[in-house]
């Protein structure tokens, strides 16, 4: 790229700024500084969209958490019975896998709850 077409790099031979910057009379700022103001505006619009979309999930989240907790509680109650362990081993393994899946879903629901609370702040 020639020195005449670059903005802000200057002419290496004369030590002067390149002509386009002289014509504009604008101060020479790094590109990162020029682009910084629009970024928060875009982030704000994006956050507003997240808030709007998350409104429905925020309303459904307490019911989801309650349902998952109730299923986990019921499964724990079943597993606390001695008869539970008299079942075939594959059935016990299925229920253990189901419990693990429910606990992971519950952890994800709580994580989502925290994210929504942080967005609300």
In short:
The protein is mainly alpha-helical. Helices cover 70% and strands 0% of the residues.
CATH homologous superfamily of the domain at 55-120 - what is it?
Valyl-tRNA synthetase, C-terminal domain
Q: What is the highest CATH level, the class of the domain at 55-120?
A: Mainly Alpha
Secondary structure class reads mainly alpha
What is the count of DSSP helices, taking H or I runs of 4+ residues?
Answer: 4
Order of helices and strands: HHHH
Stretches with pLDDT under 50, minimum 5 residues: 29-50
**Which outline best applies?**
elongated
Number of strands: 0
Report how far the terminal alpha carbons are from each other.
Answer: 48 Å
What share of the residues lie within helices?
over 70%
Strand content: under 5%
Biggest β-sheet strands, sense, barrel: none
CATH 2nd-level architecture of the domain at 55-120 = Orthogonal Bundle
Topology-level CATH name of the domain at 55-120 = Helix Hairpins
Mean pLDDT, as a whole number?
73
User: How big is the Rg?
Assistant: 30 Å
């Amino acid at each position: 790229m020639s020195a005449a077409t670059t903005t802000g790099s200057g002419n290496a031979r004369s030590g002067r700024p390149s002509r386009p910057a002289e014509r504009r009379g604008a101060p020479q700022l790094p590109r990162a500084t020029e682009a910084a103001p629009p970024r928060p505006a875009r982030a704000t619009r994006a956050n507003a969209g997240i808030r709007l979309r998350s409104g429905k999930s925020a309303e459904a989240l307490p019911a989801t958490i309650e349902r998952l907790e109730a299923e986990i509680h019921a499964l724990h109650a079943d597993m606390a019975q001695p008869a539970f362990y008299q079942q075939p081993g594959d059935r016990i393994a299925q229920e253990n896998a189901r419990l693990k899946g429910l606990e992971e879903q519950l952890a994800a629901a709580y994580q989502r709850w925290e994210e929504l609370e942080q967005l609300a702040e």
